[in-house]
Amino acid sequence: MQKAIHISGFFSHRCNWKPSSILISSNSKPFSSLFSPYPFLKPVPITTIDSPISTVRFISSHASSSSPSSLHFAGNVRNVKFCQWCGGQTKHDIPDGDEKLRAICTICGKIAYQNPKMVAGCLVEHDNKVLLCKRNIQPSHGLWTLPAGYLEIGESAVEGAIRETREEANADVEVTSPFAQLDIPLIGQTYMIFLAKLKKPHFSPGPESSECQLFPFDDIPFNSLSFSSMVVTLSLYVEDIKAGKPKFHYGTIHKRPGTSPSDIHAYTLDHHMHS
Ligand SMILES: [Zn+2]
Fold first, then answer.
1. Fewer CB within 10 Å: N-end or C-end of the chain?
2. 25 vs 9: CA distance, rounded Å
3. Taking Cα atoms as reference points, which of 257, 251, 224, 256 lies closest to residue 239?
4. CA dihedral 6, 178, 130, 251 (to 10 degrees)
5. Is the whole-model pTM more than 0.85?
6. H/E run at residue 195
7. How far apart are CA 222 and CA 143, in angstroms?
8. Res 62: pLDDT
9. How far apart are CA 148 and CA 168, in angstroms?
């Protein structure tokens, strides 16, 4: 089974909050002009410094996407050297009417378009605690994660999240609501995280986990999480719980240029909106 590979980002957790270091892009568009796949979502105001969500920082997505780190973009079309349909060699060119460099088969002429992958997972709530799994596989071996992984063809995001939770934590769960959609453009991934509850109070490590454990909200191991997507998801969740109840969040995770992939706290969360 494929497993998600993640990048790190600029951590915007409250403990690191420094108002003087807020990054606001000069070319950021007003939220009202941003495309929103969720009309019911509210943009996060950048002036409410005292709100829990004020820890989210804003930086130019243009600056991020044009940074040297984008050289590591997962969708490097030049890595596609052979056609997936006929095995013929590809050439790399911009097709008529297109704007992007594509891998084009020199035999059958088909174009290998590269599109993001979806990662689905569950944030399992039980007795005011959250279920985390310690990864027994690379990347991020030995670090904690929510049960999550790549969606398979033929299953919905909810089905994938339930399956991943069963595989990684031997836990049978019922999904109760969507919680977060987080895009990571640099590596071509979109996370869809659902809130869920245990159907039975049983769980144990699956083959990809060395340990599964319920963590109280105030005891989540933020410095031992596997990926920045997990830092973002759990930070938003804890903030929501302390504010009353979980919302639904949309956001884009951008890695801070020049930071190590293992630095899970070095990211910006852009275009953050919530219900
Ligand atoms: Zn071909």
1. N
2. 17
3. 251
4. 40
5. no
6. strand 189-198
7. 10
8. 28
9. 8
Bridge partners for 132 per DSSP: 213
Ligand 1 centroid from CA 112, angstroms: 9
| Measured distance CA(247)–CA(267) in Å, rounded | 22
Instruction: Enter the tokens of residue 236.
Output: 């938003």
Q: Which residues of the chain have pLDDT under 50?
A: 1-40, 45-72
Query: Hey, do 14-67+115-274 and 76-112 end up sharing a CATH topology, with the first three levels equal?
Result: no
Fill in the DSSP letter of residue 126: E
pLDDT of res. 74: 57
Q: What are phi and psi of 261, to 5 degrees?
A: -55, -25
For residue 3, the one-letter residue type is K
Distance 104 CA to ligand 1 centre (A): 8
Measured CA to CA, the distance from residue 156 to residue 162 in angstroms comes to: 10
Amino acid at 267: Y
C-alpha 10 – ligand 1 centre gap (Å) = 41
pLDDT for position 69? 31
What CATH number labels 14-67+115-274?
3.90.79.10
| Paired tokens of 158 | 């909810």
Q: What DSSP designation does 41 have?
A: P
- Give the model's pLDDT for residue 250: 98
- 254 CA → ligand 1 middle, Å: 34
**Hey, where are the domains in the chain?**
14-67+115-274, 76-112
Residue 141, both tokens: 């071996």
- pLDDT, residue 261, reads 72
Architecture of the CATH domain 76-112: Single Sheet (2.20)
